[in-house]
Amino acid sequence: MAESARPDLSPDMISLLEKERLVLLGTIDDETKGPSVNSISWVHAVSAKKIRFALDGRSRLLQNIASEPQVTLTFFANERIYTLSGKASLLAKEADGVPIRLAIFEVEIDTVRDVLFYGAKITQEPTYEKTYNPEAAHKLDSQVFSALKKA
After folding, report:
1. Distance between terminal CA atoms of the chain?
2. Rounded Cα–Cα distance for residues 82 and 69 (Å)
């Protein structure tokens, strides 16, 4: 079965990507020129064609994206796995109102593909738990998502 593709996010995908969730960010490593995949959670769908994410300002991912702005974001939704591809641009080197140095990027979406293999469905999406102070985590998440929406 061929991958199903669409040019943008569906309304349901937008709704799911307006809150914290596990997303895999694919970039091209600036040094090795090979693929690099990292997990992120600060992601916010702005519209059907745009999505933003925040990264630690010290991360090598910033250089990866500066060298090659084509990225992928992979996420689980509606019993499927989707990968969106597009060009990332730096919106802010430092997010306003956030106590740590975070860079904010926006991706102009080219394509969204269902990449789950034929004859399968996701029966349980991955979950995670923050391992540091829950109140501090909640406060930081609120600050970051506010910055993502304002950027």
Report:
1. 39
2. 19
Domain 4-150, classified CATH 2.60.120.1440, yes or no: no
Q: Say if residues 124 and 76 touch (Cβ distance below 8 Å).
A: no
Contact 138, 90 (CB under 8 A): no
Nearest residue to 61 via CA among 9, 126, 105, 1: 105
Query: Token pair 């990264």 is at which residue?
Result: 55
- pLDDT, tens digit (0-9, with 9 covering 90-100), for 35-63: 999 999 999 999 999 999 999 999 999 99
**Cα gap 79→117, rounded to integer Å:** 12
pTM, entire model: 0.93
